[in-house]
């Protein structure tokens, strides 16, 4: 075997087992990925349990328990369906509120992790926990369409100033998110809702 062929053989072997620096393709276990399987296509989300352990951990527990089988995206906030003069939000919201309401209201609230603590901000594609009062968020979540600084701690989109608990970000499928965002709606409700077949770990 020539020197060149030996070198190529060694290179292919190292690439195959992922030993060359920068060639390892395994995902970072500290940033697990989930796939939101919808009628409009798949959305891949990277979660950040190191920064938001309670929120990301709760979401993963719902995923692992199969809560999101037959869920839906049912709500949208856009420039045309909000009160004039108020801070405009852009998002799509989903979960099991419409498809399994009894389970949604029976889950205990997740302790609130504000962005001032996690240092995760509501930029384009961020996934965050929907809530009423701090600590009441459970299975329902939203995905930001465009940057939404008003959802951060101290932002103007929540009266209590605590903001929402960001815990991950879309890394593939923002075209699907935007396509869902453009679906027909009435009074902030998609007409019809967009089915979420399931959310699973990648």
SSE map:
Blueprint: H1 3-17, E1 33-38, E2 41-47, H2 53-64, E3 71-77, E4 91-95, H3 101-106, H4 115-118, E5 126-129, E6 141-144, E7 165-172, H5 174-181, E8 185-186, E9 189-201
Antiparallel strand pairs: 1-2, 1-9, 2-7, 3-4, 3-9, 4-6, 5-6, 5-7, 8-9
Q: What does this entry look like structurally?
A:
This protein is an alpha+beta fold and 202 residues long. The protein folds into two domains: 25 residues; 171 residues, Cyclophilin (Beta Barrel). It is 22% helix and 28% strand. The protein is built from five helices and nine strands; from the N terminus they run αββαββααβββαββ. It has an eight-stranded antiparallel β-barrel with strand order 1-2-7-5-6-4-3-9. A hairpin with a 2-residue loop joins strand 1 and strand 2. 34% of the residues are buried.
State the main characteristics.
202 residues; globular; 9 strands; Cyclophilin; alpha+beta
Number of strands: 9
Would you list the SSEs in sequence order as H and E? HEEHEEHHEEEHEE
Rg estimate, integer Å: 20 Å
Total count of helical runs of at least 4 residues: 5
The secondary-structure class comes to alpha+beta
Summarize the main sheet.
8 strands, antiparallel, barrel
Low-confidence stretches: 1-26
Total domains, how many?
Answer: 2
Give the helix level as a range of percent: 10-25%
Beta-strand proportion: 25-35%
Can you say what the CATH homologous superfamily of the largest domain is? Cyclophilin-like
C-alpha end-to-end distance: 41 Å
Identify the CATH class of the largest domain. Mainly Beta
What's the mean pLDDT score? 89
